[in-house]
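This section describes the prediction task in plain terms. A model, or a person checking by hand, is given the sequence of a single protein chain and must write out its three-dimensional structure as a string of tokens. No templates, partner chains or ligands are provided. The sample shown here is typical of the held-out split.
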Amino acid sequence: MFVLLVPVISVALLALLIMAPMWANDVKLEAMIGRFERYPLPPNTDWLEYGSPDASVTIRGNGNHCDYRARFTLRTSLTGPELTAHYDRADIKGIEGTSVAITVWMPEPSKRSAYYYEGFGSRAAIVEIADSTDSGWDLRCT
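The expected answer:
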């Protein structure tokens, strides 16, 4: 009976060895997302998609590193420069304690945009946070 379990246990241990670094990096990404979500929103701004950012851990470009990225959609009556100034003052820690890179996009909505008639002249804004670390053993980053 034990002889039959050896291959199953071996495969399970191999899967654990492969998945553990990915799970650890996913936890780091979730922690970075939480720090951003706890940072106060600018005035006249609210979440369009609170708690469900477009987020990933992967390698972008070339090299042996992990890139962590999350994008949030906000509704705001602020201008792009006002929103950018708010997040330029933010001290949001990244994966290893340094500040995250923050980018703000303010797309020009068409009158057919889902966000155009959301009240008080609001517009959609996309705020992206990003950081990078060594790949470790995460196969997504090699």
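For orientation: The chain has a mean pLDDT of 88.
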